Amino acid sequence: MRLNNLGLVRTNIERPDPADVARLSQFGVATIHEAMGRVGLLRPYIRPAYSGAKLCGPAVTVLLQPGDNWMFHVAAEQVQEGDVIVAGCTTESEDGFFGELLATSLTARGCKGLVIDGGVRDVADLEKMDFPVFSRAINSKGTVKATLGSVNVDVVVANALVHPGDVVVADVDGVVVVPRELVGAVADASQKREDNEEAKRQKFREGVLGLDIYGMREPLAAAGLEYVAD
Question: Which InterPro entries does the entry mention (predicted)?
Fold first, then answer.
């Protein structure tokens, strides 16, 4: 009987319809987060390693041990075209788990980027490669290959639970996780929100105030807001 999920690699995970992932990729993190009911965000300390980085794809999850990047090499074998790696750690660690060599290996497998609750290095090379990375830290500190973690198990990354096959979207505004079975519905809801915001945007361009667009005057008055012309 297993007492934990360490040393486990799941080789067969479900992924969402690629067409739904493509539709979802058209929207920003803020829009998706709002469309889902303001859920799904990773903690805001996860930031792009370089300006302009963004990604969207099904998660191949990795559970790392502190200061040890062995499981990235195991995970590379499980990556399919369009996937992203999403890596958590058994405890907090900001060591430089990931760099240009691993990015080169993952790119050859069709990987579209990395989200990691840990450190990365070789950032200039990652930017030249256009391999998007979102991380807890940038840190040159090296790691070893000695302790088993896991691949394609549920992981907690920056306070968000990520299941293998969930879609992760990341841009300058942050990182959001969309459950695999909801990707199509969230893409629909995101499009609806975008359409609604465009209608409001046009009104703002015409000079209409948010006070009137959102019907704020009556509740403000009821709350006691008072205009005084002194």
Answer: LigK_PcmE, RraA/RraA-like, RraA/RraA-like_sf
